[in-house]
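Subject: complex prediction, re-run

Hi both,

The earlier run crashed halfway through, so I resubmitted it with identical inputs.
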Amino acid sequence: MEDLKIGVYVCNCGTNIAKVVDCDATIESASRLPGVAIARPYKYMCSNPGQEMIVADIREHGLNRVVVAACSPRMHEPTFRKALQQAGVNPYFLEMANIREQCSWVHEDGAVATEKAKALVKAAVLRVARHEPLERRSVDMCPDLLVIGGGIAGMTAALDLADAGSKIYLVERADHLGGNLARVDLTAPYLDSARDMLTDRMTRVVEHPNISLLLNSEVERLEGFVGNFQATIATKARNGNAADQVATVDVGSVVVCTGYKEFDASRITHYGYGKLPNVITSFEFEKMLREGGVETKEGKAPQYVAIIHCVGSRNLEFHAYCSRVCCMTALKYAHEVKSAVPGAYVSDIYIDMHAFGKGHEDFYRRSSEVKTLFLMYAKDDYPVIRRADAKDDCEMLIEVNESLSGETIEIPADMVILMVGMEARDDWADVAHLVNISGDKDGWFIESHPKLDPVATTTDGIYIAGACQAPKDIPDSVAQARAAAARILGRIAKGKLEIDAVFAEVDEDKCSGCRMCNELCPYTAIEFDAEKKRSHIISALCKACGACVAACPSGAIAARHFTDAQIFAQIEGVLA
Amino acid sequence: MTFEPKIVGFLCNWCSYTGADLAGTSRIHYAANVRIIRVMCSARIDPTFVLKALHDGADGVLICGCHPGDCHYSEGNYKMMRRYPLLKALLADYGIEKDRVRLEWVSASEGQRFADIVNDMTERVRALGPSSIKTALATDMAER
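This time it finished cleanly. Structure:
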């Protein structure tokens, strides 16, 4: 074997790594390890200059192995493998040390984190020295697709994919399409009808020859891997006595569009929701608008309507995040109240007015011109609603500590609309489990990269779109759905899918023919050659779990890229 | 100075390693004593990996895989689960305290759970003190 020439690159990740881990000390320690020819830090290894640095070093210094100490290999291993390939080195001669997700982001003490980083780098150096060159395999990409959720995001993704010729299984739990958008009247800021927007999409979905719409259905199981998933879908029987219909379909990718649910307003006691009959949520008000009449529970036209923002949002007690759509929806209500009850007074009680989107600032200005009274309250200093006295000409009184004037103001109300925020659905964790993705602390599904890859996830072939990823308005949900569709179509266009070169192999000279491994394989990838009395692995079927490797009593099976020697080297490295 | 145990963690790629990454992206702080080695599936973890780690100076070994029923490879974690009692029995014969080797299920969405397990295990192993195998080896070396 030629002499080892290992290049070690320690990424600062801006300050993400460097502010905790002493990168120079890590470099210094790495440079003394056996076989290391060059060790360098860089601000962003994943950037083009970072990758070019590796390519240039390989060409100039004849490096034959590379260690990148940076983020999780689940994030950038493909990036750096490509860099090696570009420089003419087998991409499997790379090893990453995860010194960000599993070091700088989880440890505060710099000295301790640096020691850990050094150990992880050492493990990677010892491991990469034992790497073998591997060739990738290619498998067929199933062109059929699964979309979970029939809201605006799910329908959009399904239509784009179906228009391109793929067969789509669109699975919706409810008995109708439309999701939360089907509960909305007009949309901000252009006041066009949600119903019109949806009807067109729904009709196209129902009539599309490439879309198999499964209402009253849920995905029970998802097995397999990118390009070749098997989804088991259960459809509830219409007749209560009949059994549910269960079908298993093959799909290449999955788009998860499971949406959100609204915050339960009764959790904030100050607003008397559930006790005061005319305190209603934004969705209840939408229902009223869709049914064509704005009136109090007593059937009267409200003279005073108050709208309270950030119900459950931007508050540490409930959800710290902004739900993004409520400010514009509140302004929309000001318009809709005025058009339903021309003489009504509208007060808009807000914390900050978030008008970040296209046309939003204009809409805010126009709303201010229709004589809406804006009152600002401080976070956590909730307005308090109480029943008005008999002498008052209104149903309720709202006490607001108004921040701009510094005064406590009491305003009348016949109807109060609570702008309830968005939250993750109760069963988000079950969905995450089902498709093997992650949710953040609030239950929003996590994208592969928060800025550069907002539609893919950490599981290859699983995409997310719409409000299941984070609170989102219609245009953003649609954009994400169409982006997910485009990503998937790009892969289908290639037809074949390159997959990892990692699989298990039997050394026939060592195999005793005991057949212990035969039954262990979940993919029936192990054949027994009765003539030779040896087991043999069909590499195309092997998914590289390594169960047979650990079980073989003769040590005859090797897991490519996860060999005993490689893992032993890592153990020695981390314990050094 | 407090004793800082060295723990080797073997984590499956699909659930537990991703869960550990999630602890990072969620900035959940936890003890720095566990050094993680990634394997594709907990079923790949040969008992000799655990023995090798203890032999090479680990004070503890943490094994994490997908929750039962959630294995990326259908049932690899059940294979680990079956192997584990045998391994524990063997370790007990060697006089290795039971808290030094631990099997836990951590899903891709359980960053907090992973951090809690690491913290708890670190404390337990710290309480046990350095591994006797390590001490025995050191004595052995000194006697030679």
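Chain B touches chain A through 54 residues (CB under 8 Å).

- K.
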